[in-house]
């Protein structure tokens, strides 16, 4: 049976490709984007199975109105995909206040408000599934991506909590965590002004590697999108799905290190209890 999807951030990258694949298999998509025109070719090809809404996730009022319109257009929306976002690249102290505010407003606050906007509609229709597109950067951290990581770690914590709140209403979540993938993510980076202070630090090393194109990009966008669709079609998907060998290896390593550190300092942790407890 064909599904109806509501997807943010569909003008490029995984959002655009996800929209294409879903329409090709016969599903219906309500695609949102900030600028008109980037999906006109798909609209001409697929007709009324594609609906386009234009809004910026940082404009909460307009976004809420658009979400209500989306749920009014179709009797039911089966899957909601929160995908809008971008990366801010540079050492933390190099970023301007405006860059920091925009990164958080788009990736974190915008995603939170979008999910809050869809929840009442999903609850009223008796349930639904939400895919939050995060990244391996929601569980690990690279230098020069501190603000980006802050938003991804933040949205993952938000989703994990909300998933417990809304499970009784038949609403479930999947957090998709792709690793480096061949999309236009790097081209869309917002870069901080560079300083010489970090030239000989890990932040500077990553900056040079990114500029030279020496970073290995193992993830395939098509395979990543197919994996997201397949996991969404499962009756009982996991809360998190890691996508790509780089993401699997890096997250696995980080979790093992974290667990080893936790166990190594178990006595310190327990020493913080009240004396009558210990």
TrEMBL record:
Taxonomic superkingdom: Bacteria
GO molecular function, a single term: oxidoreductase activity
EC number of the protein: 1.1.1.381
InterPro entries: NAD(P)-bd_dom_sf (IPR036291), SDR_fam (IPR002347), SDR_oxidoreductase (IPR051911)
UniProt source species: Vreelandella titanicae
Protein name: NADP-dependent 3-hydroxy acid dehydrogenase YdfG
Family membership: Belongs to the short-chain dehydrogenases/reductases (SDR) family.
Pfam families from the UniProt entry: adh_short (PF00106)
Keyword check for Oxidoreductase: yes
Keyword Coiled coil on entry: no
